[in-house]
Sequence to fold (287 residues):
Amino acid sequence: MPLDFDKRTFTFSYSKVRLTTINGRIDIPIEIPEYYNKYLDWNYQTARLIYDKRKDQTYLHITFSRDFNKVENNGEIIGIDLGINNIAVTSNKQFYNSNKIKQIKSKFRYLRSRLQSKGTKSSKRLLKKISGREKRFMRQCNHEISKEIISPLNPGDTVILEKLNGIRKIKGNKKQRYWLNSWSYYQLQKFIQYKAELKGIKVNYVNPRNTSKICSKCLSLNTKRNKSCFECLNCNYKLNADLNASYNLKLSGKNLLEKDLPKVLITKAAVNQPCIPSVDCKAILWN
Ligand SMILES: [Zn+2]
Fold:
């Protein structure tokens, strides 16, 4: 079980760290490899104490931060939509597919339900072990996804994310709700944020209201979704639904002063029409 420390419970200096434990404060001498010397004038923030059973070694991971306010935010604005079919889609047309992760998560879920139904002492122990393993798996995925999202961006760019209010309310079916609730979106956002800020990229959060319903081309709400396909019934724009949402986030990033999406044009009520994915939509999907 990793232990987390913050500025109240640990202090850092060049030669030692001081941790506050239930038995009082302890000083631990440390040696910093030369490579990390460049971070020593940054501010330390939090620390995580981890014990590696296999190596029988204890590690202390310390995070450092620096103010990047001097960087001018005159670069590109990138909207990032977090969803079910795709974990993340950026307005730069980067898609992070969730199929493989879903498969692995399903295995965890299956194992959990089997162990829960057993209810013995040993199954409970195993259950704990598995949930720890699942958490580490998700953490690793979130690290990799956030790293890939940020790596092509430049200092001065601005990333727009959805403001998540606790567990996101979604009207989807049970399976979709399971995915949204169990996926650690909050963690993914935090990883994106700290990796962005490290690079001098600003992060802004906007109200996600209607981001998946508005047409990013004509701003009409007269739209429909069919699985991953978005169609505007006003201007006939068709594209991947998550990509449309990321375009809308980008738009609301541009309108940040109003803290919301630009005024929506409401046209005729929706007409029931079959959604025919255009070639354009497919091309984006399989790119
Ligand atoms: Zn439209």
